[in-house]
Amino acid sequence: KYPEQIELDGKSYKTDEWTNIPQFILELTKRQLHQNPNHPIGILRDLIEENFKGMGYEFYYDFKPTVTTYQNFDVLGFPQDHPGRSKSDTYYLNKEHLLRTHTSAHEHECFQQSKTPGYFITADVYRKDEVDRTHYPAFHQMEGARLWSQNTPNVEEQIKRDIESIPKTNIIVEDPFRDQPFNLENPKQEYMTDEQCRLTSIHLKKTLEYLVNQVFEKARESAKLAGSTEEYLNEPLKVRWVEAYFPWTTPSWEIEVWWKGEWLECCGCGLVKQQVLTNAELENDKFGWAFGVGLDRIAMLLFGIPDIRLFWTLDERFANQFQKGKISTFQPYSKFPGIKRDCSFWLANESPLHVNDVMEIVRQHGGDLVENVVNIDEFIHPKTGRKSQCYRINYQSMDRNLTNDEINAIHQKVEDDLVKYFQVEIR
Ligand code: PHE
Prior knowledge:
Blueprint: E1 5-8, E2 11-14, H1 23-28, H2 40-52, E3 57-60, E4 66-68, H3 69-72, E5 92-94, E6 97-99, H4 107-113, E7 118-126, E8 138-149, H5 155-164, E9 172-174, H6 194-225, E10 238-243, E11 249-259, E12 262-272, H7 274-279, E13 286-294, H8 296-303, H9 316-319, E14 339-346, H10 355-366, E15 370-380, E16 387-395, H11 404-422, E17 425-426
Parallel strand pairs: 3-7, 9-10
Antiparallel strand pairs: 1-2, 4-6, 5-6, 7-8, 8-13, 10-11, 11-12, 12-13, 14-16, 14-17, 15-16
Helix pairs in contact: 5-6, 6-8, 10-11
This protein binds phenylalanine.
């Protein structure tokens, strides 16, 4: 199924029993949308970086997408049995190399090489996932991090000054953990004092509140310009902090933004565990924070883009609408009709089938012609005990009309692969 060697970014990877990267994913790694200043993802990256210039951060944006399991997982302390490591979640070139699943894979080397107190990394990341309007196997993240040294005389005073220098916002913040950032479930690291933990957390949170403010104020402006008259657009922006867990930070949180009547998860963060820093061969005196924000969903709001697949279209009617430094609202060039196909089958007891495996097979044959895949039915036959599943696949193109013939051909290949690789019996 896979060639003996995969060539990527001038390197050659010998495939093995871990290899699971389809060709269409390899093609995506060449696109580098975040480096295109006229693409919504690139415009959003610029907008964020612009707001943090002159504040002690270095900006990285050209790390290659292939990393080792060490960089993506081990050095960050992911347990061996973490589900993120599995072949149904992650794209492997071979046992040791994979497409990064998050920008945190580069924290280690940035901590090693960065000459500034902090840094930002923007990159394309890859995960097997559902197929719908907001999920795509390739997306973008921006990582931020900042360190201080316990050897700095009066480092607490330094952090306080750094907090003061973060521009103020009108954001309304709900944060039950502001004064007491750590507890038994979300503990402090021993090598930091209570006060260092408290101040570093405040610096982290104010930084993210500022980031969110700068981006979402723009999103509100553009929603208003596009004619939205919703009430919440005139109220101050609301965010809340919830506790989270990541293997390499503690305490950890997520920031959520109130948007169109919903709490929108937008960024995981926390205080970097000492282990990550000593792994990066830094002296034992360093401490600080890191965050990772997903760019695609924010760009969808900012530019009014209804479907994440549009970021990847090569249609000029998309590309022509966006310009460096400008937040504009996407004008749909037309919505082409879709074609619906159901696929139901009996599972073979011996071959477990993960939802992501179905999604992957559909992606492989349908590519960007798949709008979404929904598991619409599951049942167990009362007599035989056999399990049946049904998926509804909505085929739709962003750029043109589809024909029944081409969809039938794709759908046939999907069914054939389900039979071939998972021994299902099509009903
Ligand atoms: N890498 C995490 C994710 O993809 C986000 C994160 C970054 C969390 C840095 C903590 C610190 O969900």
